Write a sequence for this structure.
């Protein structure tokens, strides 16, 4: 008997949705049932390009549709939590763009709702699916290069003006761009966050919040993980240096990995396709996906701690209580 495909809907049809739609199209066990957007031209184009059975202007149509098993939420950040909660309450599996919620507390609420209902909740952490990143993690976890001492991730770029959806975001660049490194630092090293010190600046008055930031994350294995991001630079750069006891890893664009100058990995498959395959197979098999909602809760706690650090101009400690919940001190 052939396997029943996971019937999916994509909510919002902006730029990031195109990557998820490509992922669905490449996944043999997925079927695109619907696309949702208030923008008629966008949703019709997405439906035609990717072969959706129908397009909808109202999210409620998808929630009430028994032919939809799962939703991919590509809406602005401040809508991730309410859309995900409504979808879970309607009995749908959820893959949502990062961050999964605007706060650690909201993230916990979503995780508990998904687990109570036996549904899959996944945060889109596509950098985890880059071949170079996965190889770097393999090396670090194996211990063959000794203990990681320092991780430095840099992202620079330029935005002339704010995107239309930014104006309603409660949090800006740390939550939006920082959600990648603040997730993959612990993931790559197998360590837990222990201490956060952050600085951030708002240089452009027409932007909704911080447009550059630096977060210094101390891990419980003693490593220092630092991320610097700005959208004020006309020089674009994205790379990471990982200094270990027995050598140095360098990730150029996060897609080329070298060890002490020797290239180990170049390129690789589309991370959004790989991520979608993981989500679909997890939903069909009834197991937790690799970057489940619960798996990314530590990064939400780190983001909360970073904003606290910026507001109070001090280092902030993180700890887990006996029940596994994160506390900011």
């Amino acid at each position: 008997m052939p396997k029943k495909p996971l019937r999916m809907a994509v909510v919002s049809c902006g730029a990031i949705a195109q990557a998820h739609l490509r992922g669905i199209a490449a996944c043999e066990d997925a079927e695109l049932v619907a696309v949702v957007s208030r923008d008629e031209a966008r949703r019709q184009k997405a439906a035609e390009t990717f072969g959706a059975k129908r397009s909808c202007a109202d999210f409620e149509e998808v929630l009430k549709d028994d032919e939809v098993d799962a939703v991919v939420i590509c809406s602005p950040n401040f809508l991730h939590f309410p859309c995900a909660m409504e979808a879970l309450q309607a009995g749908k599996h959820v893959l949502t763009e990062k961050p999964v919620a605007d706060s650690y507390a909201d993230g916990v609420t979503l995780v508990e709702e998904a687990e109570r209902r036996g549904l899959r909740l996944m945060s889109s952490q596509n950098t985890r699916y880059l071949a170079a990143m996965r190889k770097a993690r393999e090396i670090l976890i194996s211990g063959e290069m000794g203990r990681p001492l320092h991780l430095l991730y840099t992202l620079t770029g330029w935005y002339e003006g704010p995107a239309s959806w930014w104006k309603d975001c409660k949090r800006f660049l740390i939550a939006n761009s920082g959600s990648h490194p603040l997730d993959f630092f612990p993931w790559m090293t197998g360590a837990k966050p222990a201490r956060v010190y952050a600085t951030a600046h708002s240089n452009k008055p027409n932007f909704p919040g911080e447009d550059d930031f630096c977060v210094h994350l101390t891990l419980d294995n003693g490593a220092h993980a630092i991320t610097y991001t700005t959208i004020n630079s006309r020089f674009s750069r994205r790379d990471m240096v990982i200094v270990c006891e027995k050598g140095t890893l360098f990730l150029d664009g996060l897609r080329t990995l070298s060890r002490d100058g020797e290239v180990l990995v170049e390129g690789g498959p589309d991370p959004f396709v790989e991520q979608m395959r993981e989500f679909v197979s997890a939903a069909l098999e009834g197991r937790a996906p690799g970057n489940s909602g619960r798996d990314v809760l530590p990064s939400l706690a780190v983001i909360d701690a970073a904003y606290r650090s910026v507001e109070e101009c001090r280092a902030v400690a993180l700890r887990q209580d006996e029940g596994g919940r994160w506390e900011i001190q």
The chain has ten helices and 16 strands. The two ends are 55 Å apart (CA to CA).
